[in-house]
Amino acid sequence: MPASSTRDVTFANDTFNLAGQLHLPEGFDENSKYPAIVISTPGSSVKEQIGANYGRGLADRGYLALALDPGFQGQSGGQPRDLENPAARIDDIRFAVDYLTTLDYVDNDRIGALGICAGGGYAVSATLTEHRIKALGTVVPVNVGRAFRQGDTSSKRAAVAMIEAVGDRRTAAAGGLKIDRNMWIPDTEEQAAAFGITDVDTLEAVRYYRTPRGYSENSTNRRYFTSDAMMLGYDAFNLVEELLTQPLQVIVGGRIGTTFSYADGLALWEKAPNAKNFHVVQGAGHYEMYDEPKYVDEAVDTLDTFYQEFLTAQSN
């Protein structure tokens, strides 16, 4: 079996099925036991994108890696479509751990998690109360609640105004009107230019998600409108000081941009009582950490060193 072979899998949450892609090490043997990593991907992303890049890298280094589509998105079930609900995203990770424990070839004492961008924040939140996860890695982690609260600087009460707008829309929907879906990012560079967007990170996001570079037909680039209130009221790093007892690895890009993932990663690192390593990939921007081979390889090598110490050693 070649390196980075995959299996498409489905597993249940309480109400519908989640779709995943299981990345298997070279020479995979169902009669052996492997350390396993659950991969929580960025907002709007599906398993074939960033999760696949890191899943392949981890499988090449001997891990079984499970990337999944969030509920309500990609090939996973759930209505309404394109909902981004932090509580549900966190539960997705727990259900993924449940699934891994049913596989005879997974060593239940060596299950870890990897969260990327907004998925980094969700992985933190899940790991706080999911201690079957023995070690947590994050790459360019973003506290999506902070990002949404900080994103609109038009007024001091912009976040409150958005929460009120969501309430109005829910009232309208209760009366039978359709709820909108907003774009995460512009659909094209031309659309970004028409919007007057010149921010390097936003343009880099468009170049990744909306061009052949990282495009997936399963990623709609749409967000169900009521999601915004859920994210505005969410803090990915709440209770880290008290409950995140597992070893933590933080990886950030060295080029500081407008995603603030460097600042979020540093804040997480400073809060976590069992933080082991803060690694800066010099020269890398946030979105270059998604697929630029030299940057992804450096990140995965760093994760491998971390997991080797804090997962592989668990069974010794």
Note down, in words, how this protein is organized.
This protein has 316 residues and is an alpha/beta fold. The protein is built from 12 helices and 10 strands. The strands form 2 sheets. Strands 1-2-4-3-5-6-9-10 form an 8-stranded mixed β-sheet, sandwiched between helices. A hairpin with a 4-residue loop joins strand 1 and strand 2. Helix 1 (50-60) packs across helix 12 and helix 2 (86-101) packs across helix 3.
Q: What share of residues are in beta strands?
A: 15-25%
What would you report as the Rg, rounded to the nearest angstrom?
19 Å
Sheet of most strands: 8 strands, mixed
How many helices? The count is 12
> Cα distance, first to last residue?
27 Å
Helix content: 25-40%
Number of beta-strand segments: 10
The ordered string of helix (H) and strand (E) elements is EEEHEHEHEHHEHHEHHEHEHH
Integer average pLDDT? 95
Secondary structural class: alpha/beta
Shape: globular
Report low-confidence residues grouped into runs of 5 or more: none
The strands making up the biggest β-sheet line up spatially as: 1-2-4-3-5-6-9-10
Briefly, what is this?
The protein has 316 residues and is α/β, with parallel strands linked by helices. 39% of the residues lie in helices and 20% in strands.
Key words describing this protein structure:
316 residues; 12 helices; alpha/beta; 20% strand; single chain
